[in-house]
Specification:
The complex is a heterodimer of chains A (295) and B (297).
Chain A (H helix, E strand, L loop, with lengths): L1 H27 L8 H16 L4 H22 L5 H21 L1 H4 L5 E2 L10 H28 L1 H11 L1 H6 L4 H27 L1 E2 L6 H14 L4 H25 L3 H22 L14
Antiparallel strand pairs in A: 1-2
Helix pairs in contact in A: 1-6, 1-9, 1-10, 1-11, 2-3, 2-9, 3-9, 6-7, 7-9, 10-11, 10-12, 11-12
Chain B lengths: L1 H28 L6 H17 L4 H27 L4 H23 L14 E3 L2 E3 L1 H23 L1 H11 L1 H6 L4 H27 L5 H15 L5 H20 L3 H4 L10 H16 L13
Antiparallel strand pairs in B: 1-2
Helix pairs in contact in B: 1-5, 1-8, 1-9, 1-10, 2-3, 2-4, 2-8, 2-9, 3-8, 5-6, 5-8, 6-8, 9-10, 9-12, 10-12
Classes of the chains: A mainly alpha (295), B mainly alpha (297).
């Protein structure tokens, strides 16, 4: 039970970092990114590949963040002329292309088997302590990034991208370069998410194509929409609620005697249902974003 | 060479009906419905259920198509109509939720194991050097007939003119006395029914499985976007283009380029090829190849 709790908190913390990354783009910037998980996948794979080449773990994490930021630049540039919905589909396509590559380039990514035996960060510590230390690291990072992200949202940059979301023409009139704003928004979200991807690979000791499934992006979107998109506390609340659902499914599976097909369906269905109920009943989420009437 | 054309044609028929419905509905409701490809998956399972319950194949297909249309209509009335009040972004995220629910529902009932139709085995028809199964031939003919009758409906009848008017300028169309609500519902039903039929016919050869909709998501969206969302005829052209690329990629021999006897791209990259075309198109033509100019009535 104790192990299960540490695991739950660690994974929850990692999802929280990914959700914070998505919130910078979708919450503050209003960008419909449906391929967000690609950034986390890059972080995970970079860590794994760097380890397989004998590099130290921090180098792999840094490489992942750099690659994800570069991809963020490309995707942001793609948004230069696209309408929001076209861009959303394009991001989904980018993530799928990456997954196809990861699945087929065995020499680099291990194909469908992925890269296993990635060491955890605190391998040399005795048994319960290594996991506790890693959990403390993740939760510390969540706190730090949540604080930074809230500051970012209230600062000059955050106000500029919110203005871009609400009144793009006004923002352009005020001399903001919308293209550069969009690109920087995607890039900063990408870097944060790649970090979470690295942590995920270290926690699971594994990086594989499952890290890049589109369904994971939709889980992140649900966290944002349920908790309150555009507000840091809301995002964290959404993560807690969704993780509670995830943790509940194995128990429900045992209680109801479901096979793993049904359990997978139950998990997917509950996420879908929560997302839909939230969109229909409380569109701005449980903790709505506070917009100042006049800046 | 003939086989090449037939392969392209078959893949086009896979995509065309579903892309057509998606594009047609986009013209009226103005958001890309991600759940649309899951209607095809529902159609496949409904047809399987009907056929294994003893209905003849044609009846099972027709029933599945009609039921999928009704599901689509119900979702439009109960869910999307309310979501659209929050804007297209909310509706698009909502369609993600609907897609998850549909997949979860079918997986919960039917499981993740593919269901193959038990069809009597038939010899393939041989045309020149090419082969095609009778099922595929029927699929092709049905799709062609549907596409032609749809184009006829759209450009030759009053109802078609009303649909085009509503898509290009909803306010003006309503001011001229068109019943926007009724037309939208009619188009919703048709697009769902057509997607369901497309999915059911696809499942005749590949079996009904829960990833059917998901596998179609990107090629269908690529086709609809290439054709310019909201332009149904463009969507069919887009489907043809995607099918052509995929077939070329599988048939192309890179051997001479790298100095080897024979070298083909891995089959798994076929999908990536169509997404790449999509990205390239969007880079240079942000509203698709046939976007802006066909929007006029």
């Amino acid at each position: 039970m104790f192990d299960f709790l540490t695991y739950l908190l660690t994974i929850g913390g990692i999802y929280a970092i990914m959700a914070l990354g998505l919130n910078i783009q979708a919450g503050y910037g209003g960008l419909l990114n449906f391929g967000h998980i690609a950034f986390a996948g890059i972080g995970a794979y970079a860590t794994g590949i760097a380890h397989a080449r004998g590099w130290p773990v921090p180098a792999g994490m840094a490489l992942g963040m750099a690659l994800a930021t570069a991809l963020g630049w490309c995707i942001g540039r793609l948004g230069r002329r696209l309408a929001a919905d076209y861009w959303g589909i394009a991001t989904l396509a980018v993530a799928e292309i990456l997954r196809t590559v990861a699945l087929n380039e065995d020499w680099l990514t291990g194909g469908a088997n992925g890269i296993s035996a990635i060491p955890g960060l605190f391998e040399n510590q005795p048994r319960p302590w290594n996991e506790l230390l890693f959990m403390a690291l993740v939760l510390g990072l969540v706190a730090l990034l949540a604080w930074l992200s809230a500051r970012l949202g209230d600062g000059r940059f955050g106000r500029a991208i919110r203005l871009m979301r609400e009144q793009p023409q006004l923002a352009a009139c005020m001399g903001y370069d919308l293209q550069s704003l969009k690109t920087r928004t995607v890039m900063s979200g990408a870097a944060v998410t790649a970090l979470a991807g690295s942590l995920y690979a270290l926690q699971m000791n594994f990086a594989g194509p499952e890290f890049l499934l589109a369904a994971e992006t939709f889980v992140l979107w649900t966290m944002l929409m349920v908790g309150g998109i555009g507000r840091t506390a809301g995002v964290l609340l959404g993560v807690v609620l969704l993780q509670a659902v995830h943790a509940f499914v194995p128990f429900a599976k045992d209680m109801l005697g479901f096979d793993s097909d049904r359990a997978g369906a139950l998990r997917l269905g509950m996420i879908g249902l929560i997302l839909l109920a939230c969109l229909l009943l409380r569109r701005e989420g449980l903790l709505p974003e506070k917009l100042r009437a006049s800046a | 060479m003939l086989q090449f054309f037939i392969d392209t044609l078959l893949r086009t028929t896979d995509l065309a009906l579903i892309a057509l419905g998606l594009s047609m509905l986009y013209g009226l409701v103005k958001f890309p419905n991600v759940a649309h490809v899951q209607y095809a998956m529902c159609g496949a399972f409904l047809a399987y259920a009907g056929h294994s319950a003893g209905a003849p194949l044609a009846a099972a297909l027709a029933l599945a198509s009609a039921l999928t249309g009704l599901i689509t209509l119900a979702l439009q009335r109960l869910v999307f109509k309310r979501l659209l009040q929050g804007g297209p972004a909310i509706a698009m995220i909502g369609s993600l939720a609907i897609a998850m629910l549909l997949v979860a529902g079918v997986q919960g009932i039917a499981g993740s194991f593919p269901r193959m139709f038990s069809l009597p085995s038939m010899d393939p028809v041989v045309i020149g050097a090419a082969r095609i199964t009778p099922v595929q031939l029927g699929f092709c003919a049905t799709t062609m007939a549907l596409l032609l009758s749809f184009v006829g409906l759209l450009f030759r009848t009053r109802a078609g003119r009303a649909m085009r008017a509503l898509a290009s300028n909803p306010m003006l169309a309503e001011a001229c006395g068109l019943d926007a609500q009724r037309i939208t519902y009619a188009v919703t039903f048709i697009s769902g029914a057509v997607a369901g039929l497309g999915g059911a016919m696809l499942a005749l050869s590949t079996g009904a499985h829960i990833n059917l909709g998901y596998d179609l998501l990107l090629p269908v969206f690529a086709a609809a976007i290439l054709g310019g969302l909201g332009n149904p005829v463009g969507a069919v052209a887009g489907a043809l283009l995607i099918a052509l690329t995929e077939t070329i990629v599988t048939h192309l021999d890179f051997g001479p380029l790298v100095g080897q006897e024979l070298r083909f791209l891995p089959v798994a990259y076929i999908g990536a090829a169509s997404f790449l075309i999509l990205l390239l198109t969007l880079l240079f033509k942000p509203h698709g190849l046939f976007g802006a100019e066909v929007r006029r009535v």
